[in-house]
Amino acid sequence: MQTRTDEAELIRTLTPFEGPPPGDLPPRLSNPFHPAPPGPWGLRAAEALQQRLRRAPAHHEALWRPGGGKMFGVLVVAAPDGRVGHLSAFSGMLGGAWSVEGFVPPLFDPVSRDAFWPAGEAELAALEHQHAALCRDVETLRARGDTDALRDVEARRAEVEHVRAERSRALWRQVTRGYVIPNARGETQTLAALFEPKPPPGGAGDCAAPKLLAYAFRNRLKPLELAEFWWGAPPLDGRRESGAYYPACDNKCGTVLPFMLQGLAVDLPPPATASVGPSVLHEDPWVLVVDKPVGLPTLPGRHAPLRDSVLVQLQPRFPELTSASFLHELDPESSGLLVIARDAVTRASLQRQLSQREAEHRHVAWVDGRVEGDAGLIELPLRPAVHASLEACVDARHGRRTRSAWKVLHREPARTRLELIPTTHSLLTLRIHAAHRLGLGTPITGDARFGREAARLMLHAEAVAFLHPHTGERLSFTSPAPF
Predict the structure, then answer these.
(1) How many CB atoms lie within 10 A of CB 237?
(2) Number of C-beta neighbours around residue 278 at 10 A
(3) pLDDT, tens digit, for every residue of 291-332?
(4) Exposure of 41 by Cβ count < 10 A (0-12 exposed, 13-18 middle, 19+ buried)?
(5) How many CB atoms lie within 10 A of CB 214?
(6) Distance CA 404, CA 351 (A)
Protein backbone atom coordinates (compact mmCIF):
# COMPACT_ATOMS: atom_id res chain seq x y z
CA MET A 1 0.00 0.00 0.00
CA GLN A 2 1.26 3.46 -0.84
CA THR A 3 2.01 5.86 2.01
CA ARG A 4 1.47 9.61 1.87
CA THR A 5 5.17 10.00 1.19
CA ASP A 6 4.86 7.59 -1.72
CA GLU A 7 1.87 9.53 -3.07
CA ALA A 8 3.72 12.82 -2.75
CA GLU A 9 6.67 11.38 -4.68
CA LEU A 10 4.31 10.05 -7.34
CA ILE A 11 2.70 13.50 -7.75
CA ARG A 12 6.18 15.02 -8.28
CA THR A 13 7.28 12.29 -10.71
CA LEU A 14 4.10 11.77 -12.77
CA THR A 15 3.84 14.64 -15.27
CA PRO A 16 0.27 15.36 -16.43
CA PHE A 17 -0.47 16.05 -20.09
CA GLU A 18 -1.34 19.58 -21.07
CA GLY A 19 -3.76 20.57 -23.82
CA PRO A 20 -6.22 18.38 -25.72
CA PRO A 21 -5.42 14.67 -25.90
CA PRO A 22 -3.48 13.69 -29.04
CA GLY A 23 -5.91 10.84 -29.78
CA ASP A 24 -7.18 7.61 -28.28
CA LEU A 25 -4.98 6.01 -25.65
CA PRO A 26 -2.96 3.04 -26.88
CA PRO A 27 -4.69 -0.24 -25.98
CA ARG A 28 -1.39 -1.93 -25.12
CA LEU A 29 2.33 -1.22 -24.93
CA SER A 30 4.16 -1.44 -28.24
CA ASN A 31 7.19 -3.65 -28.75
CA PRO A 32 10.11 -1.73 -27.14
CA PHE A 33 12.60 -3.41 -29.50
CA HIS A 34 10.79 -2.25 -32.64
CA PRO A 35 12.55 0.60 -34.50
CA ALA A 36 9.27 2.39 -35.41
CA PRO A 37 8.83 5.95 -34.02
CA PRO A 38 6.53 6.38 -31.02
CA GLY A 39 2.85 7.20 -31.37
CA PRO A 40 1.24 10.58 -30.64
CA TRP A 41 1.12 10.12 -26.86
CA GLY A 42 4.76 9.09 -26.68
CA LEU A 43 5.80 11.96 -28.95
CA ARG A 44 3.90 14.47 -26.80
CA ALA A 45 5.60 13.16 -23.65
CA ALA A 46 9.05 13.13 -25.25
CA GLU A 47 8.68 16.69 -26.53
CA ALA A 48 7.68 17.83 -23.04
CA LEU A 49 10.82 16.25 -21.56
CA GLN A 50 12.98 17.77 -24.29
CA GLN A 51 11.60 21.21 -23.46
CA ARG A 52 12.40 20.60 -19.81
CA LEU A 53 15.97 19.64 -20.69
CA ARG A 54 16.38 22.82 -22.75
CA ARG A 55 15.36 24.87 -19.71
CA ALA A 56 17.90 23.18 -17.39
CA PRO A 57 21.25 24.98 -17.94
CA ALA A 58 23.29 22.63 -15.73
CA HIS A 59 22.12 19.54 -17.61
CA HIS A 60 22.32 21.30 -20.97
CA GLU A 61 26.00 22.20 -20.56
CA ALA A 62 27.06 18.68 -19.56
CA LEU A 63 24.97 16.97 -22.23
CA TRP A 64 26.39 19.05 -25.05
CA ARG A 65 30.05 18.50 -24.24
CA PRO A 66 31.81 16.24 -26.79
CA GLY A 67 30.50 12.74 -26.24
CA GLY A 68 28.32 13.94 -23.35
CA GLY A 69 24.85 13.08 -24.68
CA LYS A 70 22.78 10.22 -23.33
CA MET A 71 19.56 8.28 -23.79
CA PHE A 72 16.38 9.54 -22.15
CA GLY A 73 13.00 7.88 -21.99
CA VAL A 74 9.36 8.63 -21.27
CA LEU A 75 6.57 6.22 -20.39
CA VAL A 76 2.92 7.18 -20.80
CA VAL A 77 0.95 5.63 -17.94
CA ALA A 78 -2.58 5.49 -16.54
CA ALA A 79 -3.10 5.65 -12.78
CA PRO A 80 -5.79 3.59 -11.00
CA ASP A 81 -7.86 6.77 -10.47
CA GLY A 82 -7.93 7.47 -14.23
CA ARG A 83 -5.18 10.09 -14.38
CA VAL A 84 -2.98 9.88 -17.47
CA GLY A 85 0.53 11.27 -17.44
CA HIS A 86 4.08 10.34 -18.23
CA LEU A 87 7.22 9.37 -16.34
CA SER A 88 10.73 10.43 -17.30
CA ALA A 89 14.08 8.64 -16.95
CA PHE A 90 17.70 8.89 -18.09
CA SER A 91 20.24 6.17 -18.73
CA GLY A 92 23.02 5.82 -16.17
CA MET A 93 23.62 9.01 -14.19
CA LEU A 94 22.67 12.62 -14.91
CA GLY A 95 25.02 15.34 -13.74
CA GLY A 96 26.91 12.80 -11.64
CA ALA A 97 23.75 11.77 -9.73
CA TRP A 98 21.66 8.62 -9.80
CA SER A 99 18.56 10.36 -8.41
CA VAL A 100 17.34 13.65 -9.91
CA GLU A 101 14.05 15.34 -9.04
CA GLY A 102 11.41 14.84 -11.72
CA PHE A 103 12.93 11.54 -12.91
CA VAL A 104 12.22 8.02 -11.69
CA PRO A 105 14.84 6.56 -9.31
CA PRO A 106 17.39 3.84 -10.15
CA LEU A 107 16.70 0.14 -9.65
CA PHE A 108 19.01 -0.09 -6.64
CA ASP A 109 19.24 1.67 -3.29
CA PRO A 110 22.05 4.27 -3.59
CA VAL A 111 22.51 4.33 0.19
CA SER A 112 23.13 0.57 0.30
CA ARG A 113 25.56 0.80 -2.61
CA ASP A 114 27.48 3.64 -0.95
CA ALA A 115 28.11 1.33 2.01
CA PHE A 116 30.55 -0.80 -0.05
CA TRP A 117 31.23 0.86 -3.41
CA PRO A 118 33.78 3.56 -2.37
CA ALA A 119 35.92 1.05 -0.48
CA GLY A 120 35.79 -1.38 -3.41
CA GLU A 121 36.78 1.29 -5.90
CA ALA A 122 39.63 2.43 -3.65
CA GLU A 123 40.96 -1.14 -3.45
CA LEU A 124 40.83 -1.50 -7.25
CA ALA A 125 42.58 1.85 -7.69
CA ALA A 126 45.37 0.75 -5.33
CA LEU A 127 45.79 -2.50 -7.26
CA GLU A 128 45.88 -0.53 -10.51
CA HIS A 129 48.68 1.70 -9.17
CA GLN A 130 50.56 -1.37 -7.97
CA HIS A 131 50.17 -3.00 -11.37
CA ALA A 132 51.38 0.12 -13.19
CA ALA A 133 54.48 0.27 -11.00
CA LEU A 134 55.26 -3.39 -11.67
CA CYS A 135 54.83 -2.82 -15.42
CA ARG A 136 57.42 -0.05 -15.23
CA ASP A 137 59.75 -2.34 -13.29
CA VAL A 138 59.35 -5.04 -15.95
CA GLU A 139 60.36 -2.63 -18.70
CA THR A 140 63.38 -1.45 -16.70
CA LEU A 141 64.58 -4.98 -15.93
CA ARG A 142 64.01 -6.10 -19.49
CA ALA A 143 66.15 -3.24 -20.75
CA ARG A 144 68.92 -4.21 -18.29
CA GLY A 145 68.73 -7.88 -19.27
CA ASP A 146 68.30 -8.93 -15.62
CA THR A 147 66.40 -12.17 -16.31
CA ASP A 148 66.28 -13.51 -12.72
CA ALA A 149 64.75 -10.35 -11.29
CA LEU A 150 62.52 -10.04 -14.36
CA ARG A 151 60.95 -13.45 -13.73
CA ASP A 152 60.22 -12.51 -10.13
CA VAL A 153 58.62 -9.17 -11.04
CA GLU A 154 56.60 -10.70 -13.88
CA ALA A 155 55.25 -13.31 -11.46
CA ARG A 156 54.25 -10.58 -9.01
CA ARG A 157 52.61 -8.62 -11.83
CA ALA A 158 50.62 -11.68 -12.91
CA GLU A 159 49.48 -12.20 -9.31
CA VAL A 160 48.32 -8.57 -9.04
CA GLU A 161 46.48 -8.93 -12.34
CA HIS A 162 44.73 -12.03 -11.01
CA VAL A 163 43.80 -10.39 -7.70
CA ARG A 164 42.57 -7.25 -9.48
CA ALA A 165 40.37 -9.28 -11.83
CA GLU A 166 38.92 -11.31 -8.95
CA ARG A 167 38.23 -8.21 -6.85
CA SER A 168 36.62 -6.47 -9.82
CA ARG A 169 34.36 -9.45 -10.51
CA ALA A 170 33.41 -9.74 -6.84
CA LEU A 171 32.56 -6.04 -6.62
CA TRP A 172 30.45 -6.24 -9.78
CA ARG A 173 28.61 -9.31 -8.43
CA GLN A 174 27.82 -7.41 -5.25
CA VAL A 175 26.56 -4.46 -7.27
CA THR A 176 24.28 -6.55 -9.49
CA ARG A 177 22.73 -8.36 -6.52
CA GLY A 178 21.51 -4.94 -5.33
CA TYR A 179 19.33 -4.36 -8.42
CA VAL A 180 15.77 -5.61 -7.84
CA ILE A 181 13.88 -6.04 -11.14
CA PRO A 182 10.07 -6.35 -10.93
CA ASN A 183 7.69 -7.57 -13.62
CA ALA A 184 4.02 -6.98 -14.31
CA ARG A 185 3.05 -10.14 -12.40
CA GLY A 186 4.50 -8.77 -9.17
CA GLU A 187 7.52 -11.08 -9.28
CA THR A 188 11.09 -9.84 -8.75
CA GLN A 189 14.56 -10.97 -9.74
CA THR A 190 17.97 -9.54 -9.03
CA LEU A 191 19.95 -8.34 -12.01
CA ALA A 192 22.56 -11.01 -11.28
CA ALA A 193 19.93 -13.78 -11.42
CA LEU A 194 18.54 -12.58 -14.75
CA PHE A 195 21.89 -12.98 -16.49
CA GLU A 196 23.14 -16.14 -14.78
CA PRO A 197 25.42 -17.98 -15.35
CA LYS A 198 27.17 -15.04 -17.03
CA PRO A 199 27.76 -11.68 -15.29
CA PRO A 200 25.46 -8.87 -16.44
CA PRO A 201 26.97 -6.40 -18.89
CA GLY A 202 28.08 -3.06 -17.51
CA GLY A 203 25.17 -0.64 -17.42
CA ALA A 204 22.50 -3.36 -17.43
CA GLY A 205 19.52 -2.18 -15.41
CA ASP A 206 20.55 1.46 -15.83
CA CYS A 207 18.79 2.10 -19.15
CA ALA A 208 15.74 4.35 -19.17
CA ALA A 209 13.16 1.68 -20.09
CA PRO A 210 13.77 -0.67 -17.11
CA LYS A 211 13.72 2.27 -14.70
CA LEU A 212 10.41 3.50 -16.11
CA LEU A 213 8.68 0.12 -16.08
CA ALA A 214 9.89 -0.69 -12.56
CA TYR A 215 8.53 2.59 -11.21
CA ALA A 216 5.21 2.03 -12.98
CA PHE A 217 4.78 -1.49 -11.60
CA ARG A 218 5.64 -0.44 -8.05
CA ASN A 219 3.11 2.40 -8.15
CA ARG A 220 0.29 0.45 -9.83
CA LEU A 221 0.52 2.49 -13.02
CA LYS A 222 -0.48 0.91 -16.33
CA PRO A 223 2.23 1.36 -19.03
CA LEU A 224 0.73 2.58 -22.31
CA GLU A 225 3.51 3.92 -24.52
CA LEU A 226 7.30 4.05 -24.30
CA ALA A 227 9.64 6.38 -26.19
CA GLU A 228 13.44 6.57 -25.89
CA PHE A 229 15.57 9.22 -27.55
CA TRP A 230 19.14 10.51 -27.58
CA TRP A 231 19.71 14.04 -26.29
CA GLY A 232 22.88 16.10 -26.45
CA ALA A 233 26.19 15.71 -28.27
CA PRO A 234 26.55 12.48 -30.26
CA PRO A 235 28.61 9.65 -28.75
CA LEU A 236 32.24 9.38 -29.80
CA ASP A 237 31.37 6.68 -32.34
CA GLY A 238 28.81 9.04 -33.91
CA ARG A 239 26.02 6.44 -33.95
CA ARG A 240 23.39 8.58 -32.21
CA GLU A 241 21.73 11.86 -33.15
CA SER A 242 20.15 14.32 -30.71
CA GLY A 243 16.36 14.13 -30.78
CA ALA A 244 16.28 10.84 -32.71
CA TYR A 245 14.27 7.92 -31.33
CA TYR A 246 15.86 4.51 -30.81
CA PRO A 247 14.54 1.08 -29.80
CA ALA A 248 15.64 -0.69 -26.63
CA CYS A 249 19.14 -2.17 -26.83
CA ASP A 250 19.61 -5.92 -27.28
CA ASN A 251 22.77 -6.54 -25.26
CA LYS A 252 21.38 -5.22 -21.95
CA CYS A 253 17.61 -4.73 -22.25
CA GLY A 254 17.31 -7.83 -24.42
CA THR A 255 17.49 -9.87 -21.21
CA VAL A 256 15.96 -7.45 -18.69
CA LEU A 257 12.83 -6.31 -20.56
CA PRO A 258 11.43 -9.75 -21.55
CA PHE A 259 11.29 -10.61 -17.83
CA MET A 260 9.80 -7.24 -16.86
CA LEU A 261 7.08 -7.46 -19.52
CA GLN A 262 5.80 -10.85 -18.34
CA GLY A 263 2.17 -10.40 -17.33
CA LEU A 264 1.71 -7.22 -19.39
CA ALA A 265 -0.26 -6.91 -22.64
CA VAL A 266 2.43 -5.94 -25.12
CA ASP A 267 2.89 -6.27 -28.87
CA LEU A 268 5.94 -8.48 -29.29
CA PRO A 269 7.04 -9.93 -32.63
CA PRO A 270 7.21 -13.70 -33.08
CA PRO A 271 10.68 -15.12 -32.46
CA ALA A 272 12.96 -15.03 -35.47
CA THR A 273 13.64 -18.41 -37.03
CA ALA A 274 16.27 -19.49 -39.46
CA SER A 275 15.29 -21.06 -42.78
CA VAL A 276 17.62 -24.02 -42.18
CA GLY A 277 18.90 -25.75 -39.10
CA PRO A 278 22.40 -26.77 -37.98
CA SER A 279 24.17 -29.59 -39.81
CA VAL A 280 25.77 -32.26 -37.62
CA LEU A 281 29.23 -32.96 -39.08
CA HIS A 282 30.46 -35.26 -36.31
CA GLU A 283 28.69 -37.28 -33.64
CA ASP A 284 30.06 -39.67 -31.05
CA PRO A 285 29.14 -40.40 -27.41
CA TRP A 286 31.23 -37.47 -26.18
CA VAL A 287 31.48 -34.74 -28.84
CA LEU A 288 29.34 -33.07 -31.48
CA VAL A 289 30.56 -30.73 -34.20
CA VAL A 290 27.83 -28.78 -35.99
CA ASP A 291 27.70 -26.19 -38.76
CA LYS A 292 25.48 -23.25 -37.74
CA PRO A 293 23.64 -21.32 -40.46
CA VAL A 294 23.54 -17.54 -40.52
CA GLY A 295 20.58 -16.02 -38.66
CA LEU A 296 20.23 -18.77 -36.06
CA PRO A 297 21.25 -17.99 -32.44
CA THR A 298 23.50 -20.51 -30.73
CA LEU A 299 21.48 -20.46 -27.49
CA PRO A 300 17.85 -19.46 -26.85
CA GLY A 301 18.33 -17.07 -23.93
CA ARG A 302 17.43 -17.51 -20.27
CA HIS A 303 13.99 -15.90 -20.46
CA ALA A 304 12.98 -17.29 -23.84
CA PRO A 305 13.92 -20.98 -23.43
CA LEU A 306 11.93 -22.08 -26.48
CA ARG A 307 13.36 -19.47 -28.85
CA ASP A 308 14.64 -21.09 -32.03
CA SER A 309 18.37 -21.77 -31.71
CA VAL A 310 21.01 -24.42 -32.29
CA LEU A 311 20.37 -25.81 -28.80
CA VAL A 312 16.58 -25.97 -29.20
CA GLN A 313 16.87 -27.68 -32.59
CA LEU A 314 19.37 -30.25 -31.32
CA GLN A 315 17.66 -31.14 -28.03
CA PRO A 316 15.02 -33.51 -29.50
CA ARG A 317 17.86 -35.64 -30.90
CA PHE A 318 20.33 -35.04 -28.06
CA PRO A 319 18.19 -34.41 -24.93
CA GLU A 320 21.20 -34.26 -22.59
CA LEU A 321 22.41 -30.98 -24.11
CA THR A 322 22.20 -27.72 -22.15
CA SER A 323 23.64 -24.25 -22.64
CA ALA A 324 26.71 -25.39 -20.68
CA SER A 325 27.42 -28.03 -23.35
CA PHE A 326 28.63 -25.41 -25.83
CA LEU A 327 32.34 -24.64 -25.78
CA HIS A 328 31.69 -21.26 -27.40
CA GLU A 329 28.91 -19.26 -29.02
CA LEU A 330 28.68 -17.68 -32.45
CA ASP A 331 26.75 -14.49 -33.09
CA PRO A 332 23.36 -15.09 -34.71
CA GLU A 333 24.52 -12.99 -37.67
CA SER A 334 27.61 -15.18 -38.24
CA SER A 335 27.85 -18.81 -39.32
CA GLY A 336 30.15 -21.78 -39.05
CA LEU A 337 31.43 -24.54 -36.81
CA LEU A 338 30.55 -25.14 -33.16
CA VAL A 339 32.01 -27.76 -30.83
CA ILE A 340 29.62 -29.25 -28.25
CA ALA A 341 30.60 -31.45 -25.29
CA ARG A 342 28.08 -34.07 -24.24
CA ASP A 343 29.38 -34.48 -20.67
CA ALA A 344 31.25 -32.44 -18.07
CA VAL A 345 34.56 -34.36 -18.32
CA THR A 346 34.72 -33.85 -22.09
CA ARG A 347 33.87 -30.19 -21.71
CA ALA A 348 36.64 -29.62 -19.16
CA SER A 349 39.21 -31.28 -21.43
CA LEU A 350 38.19 -29.25 -24.48
CA GLN A 351 38.11 -26.01 -22.50
CA ARG A 352 41.66 -26.69 -21.32
CA GLN A 353 42.79 -27.28 -24.90
CA LEU A 354 41.24 -23.99 -26.01
CA SER A 355 42.74 -22.04 -23.13
CA GLN A 356 46.21 -23.51 -23.74
CA ARG A 357 45.92 -23.07 -27.52
CA GLU A 358 46.09 -26.79 -28.14
CA ALA A 359 42.76 -26.53 -29.98
CA GLU A 360 42.05 -24.13 -32.84
CA HIS A 361 38.89 -22.34 -33.94
CA ARG A 362 39.66 -20.51 -37.18
CA HIS A 363 37.41 -17.86 -38.74
CA VAL A 364 37.41 -16.06 -42.07
CA ALA A 365 36.04 -12.55 -42.58
CA TRP A 366 35.87 -9.64 -44.98
CA VAL A 367 36.53 -6.26 -43.37
CA ASP A 368 35.73 -2.83 -44.78
CA GLY A 369 38.88 -1.03 -45.88
CA ARG A 370 42.54 -1.87 -46.26
CA VAL A 371 44.42 -3.58 -43.44
CA GLU A 372 48.06 -2.54 -43.18
CA GLY A 373 50.56 -5.34 -42.67
CA ASP A 374 50.19 -9.02 -43.42
CA ALA A 375 49.66 -10.58 -39.99
CA GLY A 376 49.52 -9.67 -36.34
CA LEU A 377 48.06 -10.19 -32.88
CA ILE A 378 45.29 -8.14 -31.26
CA GLU A 379 45.16 -7.97 -27.46
CA LEU A 380 42.42 -5.87 -25.88
CA PRO A 381 40.90 -5.82 -22.37
CA LEU A 382 37.15 -6.25 -22.87
CA ARG A 383 34.50 -6.00 -20.21
CA PRO A 384 32.74 -9.29 -19.36
CA ALA A 385 29.83 -8.13 -21.51
CA VAL A 386 29.71 -5.53 -24.20
CA HIS A 387 28.48 -1.95 -23.90
CA ALA A 388 26.48 -0.30 -26.66
CA SER A 389 29.39 2.01 -27.50
CA LEU A 390 32.39 0.54 -29.28
CA GLU A 391 34.79 2.68 -27.21
CA ALA A 392 33.21 1.48 -23.96
CA CYS A 393 33.83 -2.16 -24.89
CA VAL A 394 37.56 -1.73 -24.19
CA ASP A 395 38.24 -1.16 -20.49
CA ALA A 396 41.84 -1.28 -19.29
CA ARG A 397 40.76 -1.29 -15.65
CA HIS A 398 37.92 -3.79 -15.52
CA GLY A 399 38.26 -5.62 -18.81
CA ARG A 400 39.26 -9.24 -19.34
CA ARG A 401 42.27 -9.81 -21.58
CA THR A 402 41.23 -11.07 -25.02
CA ARG A 403 43.49 -12.09 -27.87
CA SER A 404 43.13 -13.02 -31.53
CA ALA A 405 45.67 -13.59 -34.29
CA TRP A 406 45.00 -12.31 -37.81
CA LYS A 407 46.46 -12.85 -41.26
CA VAL A 408 45.62 -11.20 -44.57
CA LEU A 409 44.36 -13.70 -47.15
CA HIS A 410 43.41 -11.35 -50.00
CA ARG A 411 43.10 -7.65 -50.70
CA GLU A 412 40.64 -5.73 -52.86
CA PRO A 413 40.44 -1.93 -53.30
CA ALA A 414 37.65 -1.45 -50.72
CA ARG A 415 37.98 -4.50 -48.48
CA THR A 416 40.36 -7.11 -47.06
CA ARG A 417 39.83 -10.82 -46.50
CA LEU A 418 41.28 -12.10 -43.22
CA GLU A 419 41.92 -15.25 -41.27
CA LEU A 420 41.07 -14.72 -37.58
CA ILE A 421 42.00 -17.12 -34.79
CA PRO A 422 40.73 -16.17 -31.31
CA THR A 423 42.38 -17.63 -28.24
CA THR A 424 39.62 -16.25 -25.99
CA HIS A 425 36.07 -17.11 -26.96
CA SER A 426 33.12 -14.81 -26.28
CA LEU A 427 30.43 -13.17 -28.35
CA LEU A 428 31.44 -10.03 -30.28
CA THR A 429 35.16 -10.39 -29.51
CA LEU A 430 36.24 -10.69 -33.14
CA ARG A 431 33.86 -7.93 -34.20
CA ILE A 432 35.32 -5.58 -31.58
CA HIS A 433 38.90 -6.58 -32.42
CA ALA A 434 38.24 -5.73 -36.06
CA ALA A 435 36.31 -2.48 -35.57
CA HIS A 436 38.07 -0.85 -32.61
CA ARG A 437 40.77 1.74 -33.29
CA LEU A 438 43.14 -0.22 -31.02
CA GLY A 439 42.49 -3.34 -33.09
CA LEU A 440 42.35 -3.34 -36.87
CA GLY A 441 40.20 -0.21 -37.08
CA THR A 442 38.22 -1.79 -39.94
CA PRO A 443 34.81 -3.26 -39.02
CA ILE A 444 33.72 -6.59 -40.43
CA THR A 445 31.60 -6.13 -43.53
CA GLY A 446 27.92 -6.26 -42.66
CA ASP A 447 28.45 -5.45 -38.97
CA ALA A 448 25.46 -3.16 -38.46
CA ARG A 449 26.45 -2.56 -34.84
CA PHE A 450 30.04 -1.41 -35.28
CA GLY A 451 30.18 -0.63 -39.00
CA ARG A 452 27.64 -0.67 -41.82
CA GLU A 453 24.84 -2.99 -42.86
CA ALA A 454 25.17 -5.43 -45.74
CA ALA A 455 23.42 -8.57 -46.94
CA ARG A 456 24.95 -10.45 -43.98
CA LEU A 457 27.80 -10.30 -41.47
CA MET A 458 30.85 -11.53 -43.38
CA LEU A 459 32.19 -13.65 -40.50
CA HIS A 460 32.33 -17.45 -40.66
CA ALA A 461 33.94 -20.07 -38.40
CA GLU A 462 35.50 -22.20 -41.11
CA ALA A 463 37.65 -24.72 -39.20
CA VAL A 464 38.07 -26.42 -35.82
CA ALA A 465 40.76 -28.82 -34.69
CA PHE A 466 41.26 -30.53 -31.32
CA LEU A 467 42.52 -33.69 -29.65
CA HIS A 468 39.61 -36.01 -28.85
CA PRO A 469 39.50 -36.23 -25.01
CA HIS A 470 38.68 -39.97 -25.01
CA THR A 471 40.18 -41.52 -28.15
CA GLY A 472 43.32 -39.35 -28.35
CA GLU A 473 42.72 -38.80 -32.08
CA ARG A 474 43.42 -35.39 -33.59
CA LEU A 475 40.17 -34.29 -35.27
CA SER A 476 39.83 -31.49 -37.84
CA PHE A 477 36.71 -30.16 -39.54
CA THR A 478 36.17 -27.48 -42.16
CA SER A 479 33.20 -25.58 -43.50
CA PRO A 480 33.99 -23.35 -46.52
CA ALA A 481 32.84 -19.77 -46.09
CA PRO A 482 29.66 -19.01 -48.10
CA PHE A 483 31.04 -15.62 -49.16
Answers:
(1) 16
(2) 22
(3) 999 988 898 865 455 567 899 899 989 999 998 899 989 988
(4) buried
(5) 24
(6) 17
